[in-house]
Amino acid sequence: MVTELQELMRANVAAPPPDRMDLAGLVADGRARVRGRRRRRTAVGAAAAAVAAVVAVSVLTAPGGGRHAEPARTPPAPDAPTVHLADAQPAVEGRDYDVLASHTNDNLDRDNGQYFDGVTNDGLVLYRDGPRSDQLWPRFALMDPATGEKDWLPKLAIGQNQTWPVSLTQDRLVLMSTRDDTGEGGTLVAHVFDRVARAWSTMTWPALADVESYRTVAGPDGRLYIGVPASQGRIPEGGWPTDSSGEADDADAEGDTYHLWSVSLSDAQDVRDEGLTFGSLAFTPSSMVWTDSTNGAAGRVHVRDLSSGEEHSFDPHAGDRCNLLSFGATDDRIVMGEYCGTYDHGVRDDRVQVLTTDGEQVTTIQDSGLDGAIAGTGGVNGLVVITAYPPDAEGTYLYDLGTDRLIRVSDAIARFAMGGPVPAGQFVWTTPVNHRHGATQWLGEVRQ
Questions:
Q1: pLDDT digits over 311-357, tens only?
Q2: Does the pTM exceed 0.70?
Q3: How far apart are CA 311 and CA 359, in angstroms?
Q4: Domains of the chain
Q5: Three-state SS string across the chain, please?
Q6: What is d(CA 326, CA 338) in angstroms, rounded to the nearest whole number?
Q7: What is the mean pLDDT of residues 100-107?
Q8: Angle at 362 between CA 358 and CA 367, to 5 degrees
Q9: Edge-to-edge strands, sheet with 164-168
Q10: What confidence tier does 2 reach under pLDDT thresholds 50, 70, 90?
Q11: How far apart are CA 30 and CA 393, in angstroms?
Q12: Whole-angstrom distance, CA of residue 244 vs CA of residue 344
């Protein structure tokens, strides 16, 4: 999905007016200085991406409050073996990874473009074209990455609604969107493409509450697991503390929680209350993994064996001030992306924490101005894609969960973030073109 602010707003307008406003500085500044605060207090989940984009612009200029923060001079050391971006080895194409496909949009400031929205588990790219000013709905194709040949799918009549993929298999494609039928919140919609019948079907679940935003995760049992907001962390009285530069710092914030439901993708009446309140949620082929809360202090991590139902939980030993921003799992690894405060000279304590599913500390990647999340998952081929924003470390990095190796794939990142689910061992990244007005999107595969 495209998540850069200007691109998201444009995707929701059929014929956008000429717009030459350059948000590069605004977006980069927000990511580097107040990414933790920007990601809090906005609508969560891809369903509300366009709304979150608009909210984020105003949040970047919101006052932090009157209290003055007195952080330590430097970020504290994590309670784990620690590596930094400077420890990464330069990656070499053809030795460390192979490029499977790429696509360039020369000027995304001018109009929408084409994107890789993910890869099916039989190796075809879900290719999205538009919408844009001269094409009022998106088109989708399955593209062979080796030849570039595209199999265009029948029209999906969704107008300007944003979609996000949750499952791309050899049998079906599942894209999600929301629509507001009542004016009281969004209705969650699944668009399912049967690859054998070559036909789209649309599903909603009348028993599921209409809310402004959802969390959606595909389970290994073929069901869709949905988080409906339960509680949201509050801004403390007097506002967030500020540092010497006046920037707000919401490290160690109160987190958000969700009620867990699951639904069938073939029976609209099959809606199940799973009786669980959680923060972030992920699945491996054999387990369900979740935290107590998210977008703030994570609390404990819980692991449930899907066969036996047995559960265990543990303290992940995140830092005292760490907010959970991303969460994922493989067969035996858990990955937590965290913002843990801002210190002297605007140095951020950003972390990607890797643990075993038994709670053992594997490693923590710690630096100023980074984001990280799992890409391809499954066994030893799980990959963590790390995006770094500071000029002296800018680029895309890969941490291989199977080898515990950190490599640097690129030394520049585009202002436009794109991607979707990919098979084990694959990853997606972007690089800037045309003075950062456009982007090249790359699909790669790690060599074993």
A1: 999 999 998 899 999 999 998 899 999 999 998 888 999 999 999 99
A2: yes
A3: 13
A4: 5-87+125-374 (2.130.10)
A5: CCCCHHHHHHHCCCCCCCCCCCCHHHHHHHHHHHHHHHHCCCCCCHHHHHHHHHHHHHHCCCCCCCCECCCCCCCCCCCCCEECHHHCEECCECCCEEEEEEEEECCCCCCCCEEEEEECCCCCEEEEECCECCECCCEEEEECCCCCCEEECCCCCCCCCCCEEEEECCCEEEEEEEECCCCCCEEEEEEEEECCCCEEEEECCCCCCCECCCEEEECCCCCEEEEEEEECCCCCCCCCCECCCCCECCCCCCCEEEEEEEECCCCCCCEEEEEEEECCEEECCCEEEEECCECCCCCCEEEEECCCCCEEEECCCCCCCCEEEEEEECCCEEEEEEEEEECHHHCEEEEEEEEECCCCEEEEEEECCEEEEECCCCHHHCEEEEEECCCCCCEEEEEECCCCEEEECCCCCCCCCCCCCCCCCEEEEEEEECCCCEEEEEEEEECC
A6: 7
A7: 97
A8: 130
A9: 164-168, 172-179, 187-194, 199-203
A10: very low
A11: 17
A12: 9
Amino acid type, 407: I
Total residues belonging to the chain: 448
Place of tokens 């801004």: 235
In the numeric block, which tokens belong to residue 302?
């819980």
